[in-house]
Amino acid sequence: MSLITFVLLVGGFILLVLGAELLVKGSSVLAGILEISPLIIGLTIVAYGTSAPEMAVSVMSSFAGQSDIAIGNAVGSNILNILLILGLSAIVTPLVVRRQVIRSDVPIMIGVSILLLMFGLDGKISRVDGTILFIGAVVYTFSLIYQSRRQSNGSDGDEFAEEYGFSGDSSALVLGKNILFIIVGIALLVLGSRFLVNSATEIAKALGVSELLIGLTIVSFGTSLPELATSVVASIRDERDIAVGNVLGSNIFNILAVLGVAGIVAPDGIIVPDSAIAVDIPVAIAVAFACLPIFYSGNRINRWEGFLFVFYYLTYTGYLVLDAINHDSLPIYSTVMLFFVIPLTVITLITVALQERNSQEKI
After folding, report:
1. What pTM value is reported for the model?
2. Helices (H) and strands (E) in the chain, counts
3. Half-sphere exposure at residue 329, Cβ-oriented, CA atoms within 13 angstroms
4. DSSP string, 218-260
5. Contact status, residue 112 vs residue 75, Cβ threshold 8 Å
6. How far apart are the first and last CA of the chain?
7. CA distance 109 to 285
8. Among 277, 338, 347, which residue's Cα sits nearest to residue 312?
9. Is the pLDDT of residue 234 over 60?
10. What pLDDT shows up at residue 118?
């Protein structure tokens, strides 16, 4: 393992971030020209654009026969998106959650997470499974666009201009510039993903660490940097719908489109390790379920809930590290989390949700 490997790893991260930034910028302006509402842009264009690194890495990994990185990258990114990105965003400023998100997008995220577990029970995501997932991504996207058309109003243009800086200029020069942004962004994503996958694989082999762990930690963090930057900046600027919509849209996209396309292009499908079925995918499902009581309580994510999310991300990462090195404290660590910390958290969240419901009924 040489210095060049680490240089390629860092370089891959940088190229992914730059590529995603160009892709999101170009796609967002094109969406403005097409008059798509800001909420739908947050759930689709921005979410899909910031998930482009996951798509690039997972597809490249599938082509290379490195299924552990593909599945670990997608599942790890979903866990990181909710726990770390939404957590940090809520710590910056409490996030307002629309009722539409609670009624529609969170249940969809839970549903596709469970579907992934069901598809993976036989040990792989086959081409048939991948095709079904990808069709789901297409249906979800078109349903959002249809919903946007029904709910559009005269203020969408002003809101879009405020949140994305679109001036309304749809000249050939502006159109061509943003198409170029998209092309260059995709090229940087492909190149960055190749650097990242190759260097992460070499590091994993040199350290004797599984590719699944590398995918769940280093690669998933690197490919989630665009989501992290987008959501945290959106929180600082108090831009509505973007922080939450970006994360939820990215999570749905990661399962339906990223793993769908990866499953289709992989020669023998995506092999799903037993550890992913036993731990990582169930954790992703549990995290998705945790959004319901937290989002429901006051239709917002408070700072203390943000700290709770970040705490659980650090806890989950700690478990992965202890498991990777077979540390003697792993059984005690797991027991404390499973029988004390997690039940206490569940009771707290349910109590808060019930108190919120009672207060609303009194009003």
Report:
1. 0.77
2. 21, 4
3. 8
4. IIHHHHTHHHHHHHHHHHHTT-TTHHHHHHHHHHHHIIIIIHH
5. no
6. 64
7. 9
8. 338
9. yes
10. 95
The total number of structural domains that make up the chain: 1
Amino acid (1-letter code) at residue 315: T
Q: Per-residue DSSP letters for 113-171?
A: HHHHHHHHTTSEE-HHHHHHHHHHHHHHHHHHHHHHHHH--TTHHHHHHHHH---S---
Burial of 38 (0-12, 13-18, 19+ CB in 10 A): buried
Residue 219 has, within 13 A of its CA and on its CB side, a CA count of 38
The dihedrals phi and psi of 112, each to the nearest 5 degrees, come to -70, -30
pLDDT tens-digit series, residues 118-165: 999 998 899 999 999 999 999 998 888 777 666 655 555 555 555 545
- CB-based contact 72:120 (threshold 8 Å): no
**At which residue do the structure tokens 């910028």 appear?**
25
Largest separation between any pair of C-alpha atoms in the chain: 65
Cα torsion 36, 40, 42, 46: sign: negative
Specify the CATH number for the domain of residue 217: 1.20.1420.30
Nearest-angstrom CA–CA distance, 288 and 79: 8
3-state helix, strand and coil shares in percent for the chain, rounded to the nearest 5 = 85, 0, 15
Residue 353 contacts by C-beta under 8 Å, 6 or more apart in sequence?
293, 296, 297
Inter-residue contact 44 to 144 (CB < 8 Å)? yes
* Average pLDDT rounded to a whole number, residues 290-298: 75
Q: Of 229, 220, 233, whose CA–CA distance to 316 is shortest?
A: 220
Residues of the domain holding 232: 3-362
Phi and psi of 329, rounded to 5°? -85, -5
Tokens of 286: 């549990």
What's the alpha-carbon Rg for the chain, to the nearest Å?
20
Q: Which of 38, 25, 140, 21 is nearest to 98 (CA)?
A: 38
Cβ 89 vs Cβ 232: under 8 Å: yes
